[in-house]
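Q: Got a minute? One more chain.
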Amino acid sequence: MKKSENPFYDLSLKKRHAKTKRFKLFTYSSLLFSLAFLLFFIVDIGIKAFPALNQAYVYVDVTYSEKSMRSPRVAIDKKYKRIVSRAYLREIPKHIKQNPSLLYTTVKKWVLADDQVDQYLKGHYSKLKPKDKIFVDKLKKNKIIQLKFNKTFFSNGDSKVPEFAGILSSMIGTILTLIVTMLFAFPIGVMTAIYLEEFSKDNLKTQIIEININNLAAIPSILFGLLGLAIFINSFGMPRSSALVGGLTLALMTLPIIIVSSRAALRGVPNSVRQAGFAVGLTKVQVVTGHVLPLAFPGIMTGSIIGLAQALGETAPLIIIGMIAFIPDSPTSILDAATVLPAQVFTWAGMPERAYIEKTAAAIMVLLSILILLNSIAIYLRKKYEVKW
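A: Always. Here it is, folded:
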């Protein structure tokens, strides 16, 4: 008997199977497209960032004298002045002050080369004059000029001189800002979630609070920057561009995420745990703090880390409060002027010099690595400590 002659055969079954196959093909295609785009993005950024790991250095005699303290350019032989970084020359008086024994000595050492020399050695577009290119080629042949590991990228702060610019000040500013963010957002967010989920009654006031929390999680982040500018800087007079203001602003933005994720974690604890606590005579506070909260804590930590990762990538609210400023020196406290890594990337991306392209890409790779690390920690905590009911 043919399937079409079978009274129990559904004629639309074949069409439904075909629709299912098309739907699966569509979902797989979307997934592959997303992965391909992500791979292309990472490879493209990685290719652009790789040259930033090396920097041109030239092996020259540096003469430390009283004259070189007043005019650092005389410390280098005249024929090397066009290829040695002017930022390094400006550092010579500082070197003498830090180490007075250098005075009246001549030291042969590897010093930072100009960014145009660096770009020429890397095969990129360079504004070097033809005679300078010939001179650089000769030095390269004699191994007097070489590409070495770019330690200045990790040990220096921002600079208007491309070859001297680094991410140290923005990294320290990022760390201080995130510390302030979590110190304020985590306890307030968790306590708010505990109150709303465990102690509050379902009335109009609670519903209004919940609606506002959900709305805050969806509004554009730049509005939090305006809020931070109005409250923390204009009203309370806190120092502009400081990690304290930046951390508090990001804390306002992160609070809804922590509250929502913490409530979900608390809601995931079965009511039988609470009822068992009440059965043995525990109070509501004892049940929540001694049983419910420890069981929900892995989920709370996971949500908080994800919120922290989101705050790490924010730039718009920090631009409003001035954390896009040029910060060459690393901040020593949360009250000092500071910038963060995303803002540093934004600043470098607008620079006209070719050398900033690779530095921007390298900073992006550092930022992505931190974000991947934070998300990996969140996944690990969830897998390791999550209790399945």
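A: The mean pLDDT is 88.
Q: Perfect, thanks.
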